[in-house]
């Protein structure tokens, strides 16, 4: 059991450490980040409950609507609404890169619990595949969400609304595309590999842009 839990948790911690250590200009309070991770983990249970109820009640008749659109929409919406209501106005959300960290923390909290549940149910045979696909994709969706929230935080009211909307719809769209590829039965790996490469490129580009915005903000404060 200990080995299984370690294998399930390790990818999330490794990915979060990667994004945390890229922030060399400021140190975000670890307590707040840990709380965000924990809240993301807690979000897993109402999300999975709703998914279970909707599936059992056959609210959506077509598998594409249930497993592609509904899953992508509800998971990203819950993460987004938590970040908006709890983190966005937090006093410690004080630079553009914070959005990346909080978005990644919440998403990886969710992904880690989901990974633990899945590996406990089906064993460790797919642990490596889940580390490079579901866990990493959730992290990258969170990075994209957090990047746009970081942009929104330091914009005028009209621009802020636009970026907050992008913080929801950009990762939601990426998640729906990911789900659509994953459930395709024929040669899905040929579509998933370029998609994941794009997702990493796009997300790391946002990380770089957020870091650049942080440097500019620190220069302005120094002057």
Automatic annotation (TrEMBL):
Topology of this chain in the membrane: Multi-pass membrane protein
Protein origin, superkingdom: Bacteria
Pfam families membership: PrsW-protease
Primary localization: membrane
Gene Ontology biological process: proteolysis
Gene: prsW
UniProt source species: Kurthia gibsonii
Function: Involved in the degradation of specific anti-sigma factors.
Protein name per its UniProtKB record: Protease PrsW
Keywords annotated in UniProt: Cell membrane, Hydrolase, Membrane, Protease, Transmembrane, Transmembrane helix
